[in-house]
UniProtKB/TrEMBL annotation:
One of its GO terms (biological process) is microtubule-based movement. This is Kinesin-like protein. It comes from the Eukaryota. The keyword Cytoplasm applies. It comes from Penicillium cinerascens. Residues 1-262 form the Kinesin motor domain.
Length: 352
């Protein structure tokens, strides 16, 4: 998929399976890195970031990422600093036919290294809606899409653009078995609904139906181009080895088996003129400048939490040093006072 991405194709990989079967483990896994090395348990997204930068070595390119979640049919930007940035979907017209489904207002961050991409993944994952259910202590209650967009210079005048969507779907669940109640039951219902629509879309595509119900859920609208469209798509089906999950495992395998029969028509993106890229970069710089000014106005200067902690520690040790110096000065002053009084006494006695 990475080779196709760098050639200028749009690609999608998504993990589908019953709750607790390892979708998040497969897509993200362990996200921490040590001395620039990934853990053996790192998932597809961290490994993809490393491989992309490895393959781009020595090539003139830019990489940008976005990270969004779909929770209870609402789209949120997981990279935004704002508490709750709701996003909207819109369709771009392309030659009079249905075009790409785009997400309006989504933040796209340029990254210069795999570590920078990992930081975004970690930051967004912390914001993701997760909750404990009877089937999984950290169950993802939303679908997420981590997108990596790579622009590579092919000639002096043009740039190849490819996009890789890495999708971690929320798990389907049997509400009785998962013990979902109230808010959790509403979430589970929404998750099951969107996955049901995904199933219907897959069936309609396999049966070559005249109507494909993409518009029935935001999930299928987002994945429209990845299902029967111009994108290269790979589905990872996750199943549990437990015998008690047999029914769900059969249903997942059935889903994946049907999806295998969908025929996409991958098309390479047309090269982007270099000027378009330059003006995009210029507007990104403007955005960053505005963010910087806004941050300064609100909170003085921007500081990472590590630097902030360091500063607090430094201030505390300075305060302790100052306190000690003050006590030493006070002791010296009272010593001097005593000496002055003794001298005065001596002078008085001499005079007498
Ligand atoms: N291959 C694996 N090896 C070791 N541990 C795994 C593996 N797959 C999953 N796990 C563990 O199983 C648990 C559930 O996995 P995970 O959260 O990835 O499931 P999920 O399919 O994303 O669930 P949900 O749909 O509820 O979000 C986690 O504790 C995870 O670390």
């Amino acid at each position: 998929m990475i080779d196709e991405l760098l050639l200028g194709y749009n690609c999608t990989t998504f993990a589908y399976g019953h709750t607790g079967t390892g979708k998040t483990y497969t897509m993200s896994g362990e996200m921490a890195e040590e001395f620039g090395l990934l853990s053996d348990n790192a998932g597809i997204i961290p490994r993809t970031l490393y491989t992309i930068f490895d393959q781009l070595k020595g090539r003139d390119s830019t990489v940008k990422c976005s990270f969004i979640e779909l929770y209870n049919e609402a789209l949120r930007d997981l990279l935004s600093d704002e508490e709750d940035t709701k996003l909207q979907l819109f369709e771009s017209e392309r030659n009079g036919t249905n075009g790409n489904v785009l997400v309006k207002g989504m933040q796209e961050s340029y990254i210069g290294s795999p570590s920078a991409g990992l930081q975004l993944l970690q930051m967004g994952s912390r914001k993701r809606q997760v909750a404990a259910t009877k089937c999984n202590d950290l169950s993802s209650r939303s679908h997420t899409i981590f997108t990596i967009n790579v622009l590579t210079r092919t000639s002096n005048e043009s740039v190849t653009s490819g996009k890789l969507n890495l999708v971690d779907l929320a798990g389907s669940e049997n509400i009785q078995r998962s013990g979902a109640e109230n808010k959790r039951a509403v979430e589970a219902d929404q998750i099951n609904q969107s996955l049901l629509t995904l199933g219907r879309v897959i069936n309609a595509l396999v049966d070559k139906s005249s109507h494909v119900p993409y518009r029935e859920s935001k999930l299928t609208r987002l994945l429209q181009d990845s299902l029967g469209g111009r994108t290269k798509t790979c589905i990872i089906a996750t199943v549990s080895p437990c015998q008690s999950s047999q029914e769900e495992s059969v249903s997942t395998l059935d889903y994946a088996f049907r999806a295998k029969n969908i025929h996409n028509r991958p098309q390479m993106n047309s090269p982007v003129p270099k000027d378009t890229l330059l003006s995009e970069l210029a507007s990104e710089i403007e955005n960053l400048k505005r963010n910087l000014i806004a941050t300064r106005h609100r909170n003085g200067i921007y500081m990472t939490s590590d630097a902030h902690e360091e500063m607090i520690k430094e201030n505390e040790s300075r305060r302790i040093i100052n306190e000690e110096q003050k006590q030493r000065i006070e002791a010296l002053e009272s010593g001097l006072q005593r000496k002055a009084e003794e001298l005065l006494e001596l002078l008085r006695q001499n005079r007498n």
